[in-house]
Amino acid sequence: DNFCGALAPTLRVGDIVTSPRIFTATHLISTPQEKQRLAALHDADAVDMESAAIAAVCEERGVAFQAVRAVSDTVDTA
User: Is the dihedral of CA 14, 64, 57, 20 positive or negative?
Assistant: First the structure.
């Protein structure tokens, strides 16, 4: 899966986001209110559920990593 949810109001479906502007959540972020809270708390533009784990393995093995995600839903989408 190469998708993320928008946390920034300027992002639209299909826009591309790269790390480090992606926050990785441990659960599905399903409300606009939660998206807005995460954006403010983590200064992130988007949210996914995979990038941090993959980045950690890459760092452990000395492999360069950059997440590239396409926005699947906007900040105001539940």
Answer: negative
